[in-house]
Amino acid sequence: MTDKVEISLKINGREHRVAVEPRRTLVDVIREDCGQTGTHIGCEHGVCGACTVSIDGEPVRSCLMFAVQAAGRDIRTVEGLANGNDLHPLQKAFMEHHALQCGFCTPGFLMLASSVLEREPNISDEDLLDVLSSNLCRCTGYANIVKAVRAVAAQMRSR
Amino acid sequence: MATEKTTWIGRSVPRLEDPPLVTGRGRFAADINFPGQLHMRVVRSNHAHAKILSIDIAAARAMPGVYAAWTAADIPEVSPIDFREGRIEKLEPYRQPVLAKGRVRYVGEPVAVIFAEDAYAAEDAAEAVTVDVEELPVLLGADEPPGEFEPGRTTEVAVLVQGYGDVDAVFRTASKVVALDLVVGRHSGVPLETRGAIARYDASRDMLELHGAAKVPHRNRESLARMFGRSLASVHLFEWHVGGGFGIRGEIYPEDILVCVAAMRFNRPVKWIEDRQEHLVAANHSRQQRHKVRAAVDAEGRLLALDDTFFHDQGAYVRTHATRVPMMTCGILPGPYRVPAYRATGHVRLTNKTPAATYRSPGRFETTFVRERLMDAIAHELGIDRIELRRRNAVRKEDMPYALPLVVLGDEVEYDSGDYVGLLDKLLAHVGWDKLQADAKRRRDAGEAVGVGLSMFVEKSGLGPTDGTRVTVDTTGAVELVTGGASLGQGFETVMAQICADSLGVDYQRVRVVHGRTDRIEHGIGAHASRATVMTGSATQVAALKVREKALDVAAELMQAPVDKLDIIDGRVVRTDRPSGPSIGLGEIAAGLWPTRKTVGGREPGLSAEGWFHSEHQTYPYGVHIAVVKVDRETGGVTVERYIVGYDIGRAINPMLVEGQIVGGFAQGLGGAILEEFVYDERGQPLSVTFADYLLPTVRETPPVEVVLYEDYRSTRNPLGIKGAGEAGVTGVGGAIASAIDDAIGMPGAVTRLPVTPQRLKALLANGGRRPAT
Amino acid sequence: MYIGLLTMKPASFRYHAPNTLDEAVALLAKVAPDDGRVLAGGQSLVPTMAFRLSRPAHLVDINGIEALRRLAVDGDALSIGACVRHAAFHRPVVDGCTGRLLSDVVRHIAHFPIRTRGTFCGSLAHADPASEWCLVAATLDATMTARSVRGARQIAARDFFQGVMTTALGPDELLAEVRLPILPADTRFGFREFNRRAGDFAIAMALVTYRLRNGVMVEPRVGVGGAETHPRRIADAERALDGKPPGATAFAAAADAAAAVMDPMEDVNTSAKYRRDLVRTLTRRALERASA
Questions:
Q1: Which of A46, A68, A133 sits opposite C198 (nearest CB)?
Q2: How far does the CA of residue A159 sit from the closest CA of chain B (Å)?
Q3: C199: chain A residues, CB-CB within 8 Å
Q4: What are the two backbone dihedrals, phi and then psi, of residue B175, each rounded to the nearest 5 degrees?
Q5: What percentage of chain C exceeds 70 in pLDDT?
Q6: Residue B771: its pLDDT value, please?
């Protein structure tokens, strides 16, 4: 056990001052020390993507980063997707297209899709599929997730 | 104010479950925390079979943050884990101890447990535990001769036999016998959320709580109460959000017992969250069976007799399901075909691997693969078209209800309703079967290895015998439906709300559905065996109709109108001849039924009712899967280009959710057909222990699935006419894909083993697709 | 893959975040004897730490070192600094074949979110046999610059990759930069890999390049990775292409030659024969792709 380091994590625009051992992963600190449990742990070795958050606008597997590395960065999690009571278009689309069943993988997919679409609203369908192949879902068989994300991408393109 | 009644049943309405889940406000087991909680970490065996000489936990106990550490010696009062259905004396010796006693029998078996102030400290301490063993010979094949479980007991725990007719006589005189040796590989549900259990003991009320329960909370509560010698009223289970179950989650495992015992002993909450590696070696495995099956047929390919001997790989212990899965296997193998004489002999054998139990469509994924391979083989041997062969043998619509002297889940088999050939023909017409085959042939002629395959199956759902629910309308007009059901992500709440809303006359969004709470309702069947919609849904209808009746009775008095001129529309009682006239809200009626109000009259207070539904028999929905598959002959890679499922749903409460279940089930079946397998080396070391080794399909491997739902034959076993759909997507996948691969490579009967990995497929191609001798 | 089933969650370590390269190598010199490791993208290192397969007592996080983010053309080579992410290569970073080759290959590396963090140099230092960048470096004869307190030294690709997760880097050396020779603009290339699922570790892969002069192939490069303990160029296969017209005959000969010299890795899931056959298939397909 090593000494704890004091860091401040900015999550969804809010600062969280915590003292953590360097070995604590970002996902563990987000969930346990900062109390934001919307980000989930599915494998802890970087394969399933359930822990995906956005860091400085890019999708990152938070189980593959140590919390101390994320100090001073702009971290966004699923809890910050909606604007108050206004749901993000992806959240609405997921509900509309039945793109979730148990909901465990959902935050990861939402953060993956939202960060990618924000940077690249004109992403090609092929690239979009490539992006979505990053995360695992065990319930839906993916088809509705693809439909939901495509629908939002189309919306964004038409704007 | 609505004047027209809304129907909810049959509509693909959005789910009630979704809002918290898309906003990250769900409460999964790992999200649950209690003040003062300890974290539990299980130390697991690194050996597949060994005598335990000593376990040293002294160093672990001394580490920072460690509160306690146990081995089996510390929990002498805890018995091995019992079977869900009750005592089965013959199998009792094979139950799993909560912590290994004397021997370890699979890699991953719990040998010690650490309790610490935080999860990382618990891991550190677990590393410090040393286990000294004497290795024993390892048994890895259920089809090998049984070994020693313990002195005086072999590893063959049971030989199950089901059948009827004189099978041997038929085989003696049969003109044609087709025999196959088939293997289904070991794989399992692997939900994305690992298991978790948080126990809390409230000494102030002598109340034990277990959070993170799933699937069968009421049944588990009974088991735990019995195990700990507590009254039912002093044990409660809580199911919060669950990240998929698929049959794996929700059974009683050693970890559930340990957190409870610890919470009671320490008077502190104890939290255990499984990691992925653990899950892959500790949570139930499934599916592994080897079948030596043979059919006696006449010259036209009609089945005269079916004889199947299979070896069921149960893993190291018999867990809560006892021998349900192999028993189911025996009972459901005939599927949609008429089998005049039948015998299934299931050797249930232990091996030094993770214990096995139910996984979505248990016994049916396996038997559909076996049976459909057999049908394809018969068709090929006799030169009969594989569709025509199935038509010839299918149970006909005139034969319904079709009873068989076979037992499935304790019920005698009776297919209730349906037209197997009818559905087959409709689906074939829908996909354009002839064109599908012609297209594939044309591509094959041009050099591609493309094929088409199919499988037919009968499912089972709606396992009874009884379920009950309670519907209450409160004084605000909101409805609460309390069920003993469970939700693993399938949309249980929404479907129940739709049924309740339809029967009562309210908006489904005003119905709050309670499930997974033993403290809210005394009885419950949970959610498994595709029974929730059927049983809990039917009970909900009964309860809601009673509430409606009571409301109308009160309203009739208050509105001075005859009951038959009243209806409830969108939560208000209106006159059917003047729907826009005066009306009374259900909330007002509920207020009027307050015990202190005069309006109660002689009635029981409260706008509330219990409803019970009883069913003697399960229902047997059925379906067909069709696969178009492309094989890369050089790499052995398999791509599923197209997949169609035709399924008799009876009546779909929410078609969108039914489709979701089927598509999700397909993805799991696809995994079992070509990707997923728990592999062991010759020392019994599991090799599929990360997501890099155990391969779940991604979106790239999973084609869109066309789901065609048929509602031609409502179930005769419940008033709503519904049949379950939770498992239908997975059942036929192994059989359909195997059939398609054979077709693609032009080698009938080539695929005899799942999963079809690229390497295995290449070996088949090299081997000329010769079937192994049986 | 054998993993001790004892634990997950990383073991303790001391964390250092230097601001300059000099600081970084000075730290490394101090902590290397104590199993001190470099942390760049972390996409390969952190999973092994999660399983406690590696338990470095110190991590030197180089992500804050500005100088290591350099990605630039230096004369006839592309210089890739230690902190350049895979994602940088999604769009061609240089005109001509090299840029296209890198953006073609990068799509096969793991998955999108891994690529936003993982680094080119990190892949090389990690030296997983199934690493696509290692194959690229070996096939194109990259030069690696190793930095330590003793200064810098250049290591040629053929000397750099030594075995499974084994390179010529010393424990206190940091792979600061890789220089990839920029191929002539008219070079043709083809890359093919095979895995069980999109984004998985490649079971085998082939990267080929050649130029056409007077209708025949010249300056051929045939690299094979994923099948042996480390990637390498296959001289026999290149000889089978040199001076021959592109087409089925030469491609088959090169593919056979590559397969023949393979010493494939073997495990319970994958036989040597299967890998060897795969190398033959992928080499041929990579050539077909190059000539398309």
A1: A133
A2: 24
A3: 133-134
A4: -80, -25
A5: 98
A6: 44
Phi, psi of C166 (to 5 degrees): -125, 125
Q: Which residue segment(s) compose the domain that A115 sits in?
A: 89-158
φ, ψ of residue B131 to 5 degrees: the values are -120, 125
Query: Do the Cβ atoms of C199 and B698 come within 8 Å?
Result: yes
Short-list B568, B535, B186, B190, CA closest to B365: B186
User: Into how many domains does chain C fold?
Assistant: 3
Q: Domain check: are C111 and C194 in the same one?
A: no
Q: Which is it for the CA torsion C9, C13, C19, C25, positive or negative?
A: negative
| Kind plus residue range of the DSSP H or E element containing B199 | strand B196-202
Contact call for B24 and A50, based on CB within 8 A: no
Task: Give the CATH number of the domain where residue A93 resides.
Answer: 1.10.150.120
Q: Whole-angstrom Cα distance, residue C79 to residue B453? A: 53
Q: Which CATH number applies to B289-396+412-461+618-766: 3.40.50.300, 2.40.10.330, 3.30.365.10, 3.40.570.10?
A: 3.30.365.10
Residues of chain C neighbouring B43 (CB-CB closer than 8 A): 6
Residue C99 domain-assigned (yes or no): yes
| B2: pLDDT strictly greater than 80 | no
* Amino acid B465: pLDDT: 86
Please say whether the dihedral angle defined by the alpha carbons of residues B731, B735, B737 and B740, taken in this order, is positive or negative. Answer: negative
Q: Chains that contact B by 3+ CB pairs under 8 Å? A: A, C
So what's the architecture of B32-136+194-242+249-282 in CATH?
Alpha-Beta Complex (3.90)
Reported as a pLDDT band with limits 50, 70 and 90, residue A1 is low
Q: Is C198 in CB contact (< 8 Å) with chain A?
A: yes
Q: Residue B149 and residue B352: Cα distance in Å, rounded? A: 10
Q: Is A146 on the interface with C (CB under 8 A)?
A: no
Residue A82, CB-side half-sphere exposure with 13 Å CA sphere:
17
Q: ipTM surpassing 0.95, yes or no?
A: yes
Q: Which residues of A touch B698 (CB under 8 A)?
A: 133-136, 142
Size of interface A-C (CB pairs under 8 A): 83
Contacts of C110 (CB under 8 A, 6+ apart): C43, C86, C118, C199
Residues 227-266 of B with CB under 8 A from A: 241-244, 246
Q: DSSP secondary structure string, A10-48?
A: EETTEEEEEEE-TTSBHHHIIIIIS--TTS--S-SSSSS
Same domain, A74 and A97: no
Q: How far is CA B349 from CA B94, B363, B365, B408, in A?
A: 11, 16, 20, 20
Tell whether C2 is covered by a domain: no
Helix (H, G, I), strand (E, B) or coil at B588: helix
CB C180 within 8 Å of CB C98? yes
Contact of C55 with chain B, judged by CB distance below 8 Å, is answered with no
* Residue whose token pair is 């390049």: C209
Q: Of A23, A112, A133, which has the smallest distance from its Cβ to C11's Cβ?
A: A23
Q: Supply the range of the domain harboring residue C160.
A: 66-181
Q: State how far the Cα of B490 lies from the Cα of B242, in Å rounded to an integer.
A: 10
Enumerate the residues of chain C whose CB falls inside 8 A of the CB of residue B689: 1, 3, 5
What's the pTM? 0.97
Has residue B619 got a pLDDT over 80?
A: yes
Report the half-sphere exposure of B60 (CA within 13 A, side-chain side).
28
Neighbours of B53 (CB within 10 A): 9
**In this structure, are A36 and A103 located in the same domain?**
no
**Cα distances (Å, whole numbers) of residue B273 to B100, B279, B311, B353:** 20, 10, 34, 22
Distance CA B325, CA B614 (A): 24
3-state secondary structure of C209: strand
How far apart are the C-alpha atoms of B608 and B472, rounded to whole Å? 4
What is the structure's pLDDT at C1? 31
